[in-house]
Design goal:
The complex is a heterodimer of chains A (355) and B (496). In chain A, the strands form five sheets. A five-stranded antiparallel β-sheet of chain A has the order 3-4-8-6-7. A four-stranded antiparallel β-sheet of chain A has the order 11-12-10-13, sandwiched between helices. Chain A has a four-stranded antiparallel β-sheet with strand order 15-16-14-17, covered by helices on one side. Chain A is α+β, with helices and mostly antiparallel strands and 355 residues long. The mean pLDDT of chain A is 97. The longest helix of chain A is centred in the N-terminal third of the chain and has 14 residues. Chain A folds into two domains: 172 residues, Uridine Diphospho-n-acetylenolpyruvylglucosamine Reductase, domain 3 (2-Layer Sandwich); 137 residues. Chain B has 496 residues and is an alpha+beta fold. In chain B, 36% of the residues lie in helices and 19% in strands. In chain B, helix 9 packs across helix 11, helix 13 runs antiparallel to helix 14 and helix 15 packs across helix 17. The N terminus of chain B is likely disordered. The chains are: A alpha+beta (355), B alpha+beta (496). At the A-B interface, strand 7, helix 5, strand 9, helix 6 and helix 7 of A face strand 9, helix 7, helix 8, helix 10 and helix 16 of B. The complex binds flavin-adenine dinucleotide. Flavin-adenine dinucleotide binds next to strand 3, helix 5, strand 10 and helix 12 of chain B.
Chain lengths: 355, 496
């Protein structure tokens, strides 16, 4: 681990300077998710120097760390106390930082079963586009004083503020983990994944890769062996590597230059009538599609099912990467952006053209 | 008490013009304006604060809600949304120059989708009714506030309510997937839905716990969970509250996340036992209720572990519920703790601070000292696993000055929670009640940021104005009173 450093004063000076000169800044963590969102604009402001774990108390189930801390370092520390980040954040590369994980709001395969990034955010210290350092939430499990600005920061792609510190709820690692394998069709997989999710089973992952359904179970030995009785299937020996590869997009499906779409829809939605190759994650609630199909078609079909579509990787990064919002919601986004970053200097247009 | 300085300045509307306008858009039975009809709405669960509004509206359709909002918007009349009125912080307290917008008639469960495991409901649906509707499918809605037979899902979202099973299954914010919200100018926003996320900012996070300040919730989509195969509860008695607190840390430290982990002190135990006859040990200084749930074998395993940990932590008695009936009895005592305390005292005042669990013993000792100083007994009930305290201060409002002393005592408890790194409210909200303590928890720059968020939704500050977020002016006044003689409360406590 690299030494702890607090550079919040220097970062604040940079933001004040940028405000004075009307110069946009692109907030740079480890660069592991730089492909995500609309193309970055502005002068790079690195936050990786702002790092270190500030407090961690295993019995309180809370960790607080500076945003530039490497995600891998945070997870290694937690693992040494047999705990984990319960939302299984994608790293994509070894440089991934904690701040980037929160700002992109991406969660791994366990998301439908344990929760998303924002579900585990307890508090943040944030440097806003006004150049102010503000604290919201805290280190306690329950806190309803004031609007929940800390959870609101998750997934805001640095367009509202530069995350300086984050407090997260952590959980014990499961006693054991097993992956089961089933051969089936996509429709069959969707039905099975949803039927199982409606039963009290220790599920922590459900992926269909086009030919096989992978089901991960996490919990006590007793719970796992009981679940295996109910579920059947074949025991898959390389589960750990498989789930990491799905999480970090190093799985073979993702080794491709075709534009990659992420469709988020109600989990039991039947297979979409869209051409391309599919990988279904989150028990069907998150679907990856490699396709050259037109954005408008993808969005129309996803929206009809009650979902939304993101051009996750590749394709036109200057265009509508995220699903367009209805006018009233878009206007509200602009007003909220202005409430935190009135000069529009933080990651401008990373999410929507004027947000 | 309600302080006029905390109310945002809105002109006093002409009552008869307003009533006429409301009658034009609603059936006559849906507009109340006579004092005796308004009386049932004068307070919420915090009955020490009372106020009569100009009118109460009881719309039945989203279009009617929109029409009410438009009338009030055009006349600059403040609007206070109201569910069942069980809130404990004066969030639904009417404003004298405002309208109460009751969502009580929105009682329909629109859809239960067992395959996608969601329910779409109107905001006035009672919390428990959702679980009842989902039960035939083996599903339930997890957050279970003790008020669940009465409180509405709209109120739950507005307060981000919790319950005795939050430690494992989360608060309202973790269990809501979608909202339909009307803004003050009558715009309908659809936020999230039946998918696990939506595009853009996480407005669900912002709306949840916003205490009716950002929009009126007209529909809620919640997540349903499969009922665990088995749940089992252990009751442990302790001769010392501190030991009970330490046992909580040991259970979690052992890697066990119980479904519920609750603590009650002696006064609360006796009150609950008198009322419910749950079989609680009335001589114990404290009891812990620890519930584990999951697969049958797993529960058996964990119960053994929990029992062992509790004994090691010095429990004088460890009792596993013999059957489902006894399990429910143990919980019934806990869930009825507030009304039970209500039976032994003319009035009680419920506090809601949250602290880092490791500071529990010092906070409890300090509360006990303050209780002596003020001569007011305190019964303690907490969501121990989450560090969320509910000290109940027993008082008699008919004794002159006693309410004021109770409020001062309560304020000190909240200051204490902030001083040890906690918060003034874990689940009941700020409302009107803790508006002063907000100045203590947040610096003015953060409060200004809250106002900026509010402004983005409701630029004229017509939705529940004066609640939840104090004006900086209000804080200046409160601060002058609070840091009396230049002394901070609890200078001896380490500050975070
Ligand atoms: C005996 C007792 C036990 C309790 N136990 C718990 C507990 O265990 N956990 C817990 O968290 N709370 C508890 N509470 C507090 C209370 O029940 C909750 O805060 C509940 O969520 C309030 O719901 P309600 O429908 O009564 O809302 P109300 O009291 O009517 O309103 C609460 C707030 O929500 C706003 N609001 C209501 N409906 C809407 C809407 N549709 N749109 C926008 N804003 C709205 C109101 O303006 C107000 O600010 C308890 C209360 C009592 C009396």
């Amino acid at each position: 681990m690299t030494p702890d450093i607090d550079i919040s004063a220097a970062l604040q000076a940079k933001v004040l300077e940028a405000i004075a000169q009307g110069r946009p800044l692109q907030i740079a963590g480890g660069g592991s998710k730089i492909f995500y969102g609309r193309a970055p604009q502005g002068e790079a402001l690195s936050v990786t120097g702002h790092r270190g774990v500030i407090s961690y108390e295993p019995t309180e189930l809370v960790i607080t760390a500076r945003a530039g801390t490497r995600l891998a370092d945070v997870e290694a520390l937690l693992a040494s106390h047999n705990q984990m980040l319960p939302f299984e954040p994608p790293h994509f590369t070894a440089n991934a930082t904690l701040g980037g994980a929160i700002a992109t709001g991406l969660s791994g395969p366990c998301r439908p079963y344990t929760g998303s990034v924002r579900d585990f955010v307890l508090g943040v210290k944030v440097l806003t586009g006004k150049g102010e350092i503000l604290s919201f939430g805290g280190q306690v499990m329950k806190n309803v004083a004031g609007f929940d600005v800390s959870r609101f920061m998750a997934g805001s792609l640095g367009t509202l503020g530069i995350l300086l510190e984050v407090s997260l709820k952590v959980l014990p690692r499961p006693e054991s983990e097993q992956t089961l394998l089933f051969e089936c069709s996509a429709l069959d997989a969707i039905q099975r994944m949803n039927a199982w999710a409606g039963q009290p089973l220790p599920l922590s992952g459900a992926v269909f890769d086009g030919g096989r359904l992978y089901l991960r179970l996490s919990g006590s030995e007793a719970a796992l062996s009981a679940a295996r009785q109910t579920l059947g299937g074949e025991l898959f020996p390389d589960g750990t590597a498989f789930w990491r590869d799905v999480r970090d997009h190093t799985y073979t499906f993702f080794q491709d230059d075709a534009p990659l779409w992420r469709l988020s829809a109600p989990a039991a939605t039947p297979p979409f009538d869209l051409p391309g190759e599919w990988l279904l994650d989150w028990g069907g609630a998150q679907r990856w599609l490699k396709t050259s199909c037109a954005a408008a078609t993808i969005r129309e079909i996803t929206a009809k099912a009650g979902g939304h579509a993101t051009l996750f990787r590749g394709g036109d990064r200057q265009g509508a990467v995220f699903h367009p919002l209805p006018p009233a919601l878009m206007a509200l986004h602009r007003r909220l952006k202005a409430a935190f970053d009135p000069h529009g200097i933080l990651n401008p247009a990373r999410m929507y053209p004027d947000v | 008490m309600q302080d006029p300085a905390s109310q945002v300045d809105h002109p006093i509307p002409n009552k008869s013009v307003l009533i006429t306008a409301l009658h034009r858009i609603l059936p006559s039975s849906a507009v109340l304006s006579d004092a005796e009809d308004l009386r049932p709405y004068e307070c919420d669960g915090l009955s020490a604060y009372r106020e009569l509004p100009l009118a109460v509206c009881l719309p039945e359709t989203v279009e009617q809600v929109r029409a009410v909002l438009r009338v009030c918007h055009d006349m600059s009349v403040p609007v206070v949304a109201r569910g069942a009125g069980t809130g404990l912080s004066g969030g639904a307290l009417p404003l004298a120059n405002g309208v109460v917008l009751s969502l009580a008639k929105f009682m329909r469960i629109l859809e239960v989708d067992p395959v996608n495991r969601i329910a779409r409901v109107q905001p006035g649906v009672r919390n428990l009714a959702i679980s009842q509707a989902a039960a035939p499918y083996g599903l339930y809605y997890a957050p279970d506030p003790s008020s669940q037979i009465a409180c509405t899902i709209g109120g739950n979202v507005a307060e981000n309510s919790g319950g005795v099973h939050c430690l494992k299954y989360g608060l309202t914010v973790h269990n809501v997937l979608g909202l339909k919200v009307l803004t003050m100018d009558g715009e309908l926003l659809e936020i999230g839905g039946a998918a696990l996320d939506g595009p853009g900012y996480d407005l669900l996070a912002l709306m949840t716990g916003s205490e009716g300040l950002l929009g009126v919730i007209v529909e809620v989509t919640v997540k349903l969970l499969p009922k665990p195969e088995r749940a089992q509860v252990v009751l442990a008695a302790f001769d010392d509250v501190v030991k009970a607190g330490e046992a909580v840390g040991s259970i979690i430290g052992a890697g066990i996340i119980p479904g519920g982990l609750e603590m009650m002190d002696n006064l609360a135990i006796r009150a609950a036992e008198d009322f419910i006859h749950a079989g609680y040990p009335v001589d114990a200084a404290a009891i812990l209720l620890c519930e584990v749930d999951g697969a049958n074998e797993e529960v058996s395993d964990q119960i053994l572990k929990v029992r062992e940990i509790l004994k090691q932590a010095g429990a004088t008695e460890v009792r596993t519920a013999r059957d489902e009936a006894e399990r429910l009895k143990f919980w019934a005592g806990r869930k009825a703790a507030f009304p039970a305390v209500g039976r032994i005292s003319p009035d009680y005042y419920c506090m809601d601070g949250t602290i880092p669990r490791k500071r529990l013993s010092e906070v409890l000792s300090r509360i006990a000292e303050l209780s002596k100083e003020y001569g007011l007994p305190v019964a303690n009930v907490f969501h121990a696993g989450d560090g969320n305290l509910h000290p109940l201060i027993l008082y008699d409002a008919n004794k002159p000055g006693e309410l004021e002393r109770t409020e001062e005592f309560g304020g000190k408890i909240l200051d204490l929670c902030v001083a040890v790194g906690g918060t003034i409210t874990g689940e009941h909200g700020v409302g009107m009640e803790k508006i002063g303590q907000m100045c203590h928890q947040f610096a003015s720059a953060e409060l200004a940021q809250f106002h900026a968020v509010k402004h983005a939704f409701d630029p004229q500050a017509l939705l529940n104005p004066g609640k939840a977020v104090p004006t900086l002016h209000r804080c200046a006044e409160f601060g002058a009173m609070h840091v009396h003689g230049g002394k901070l409360s609890f200078p001896e406590m380490e500050r975070f």
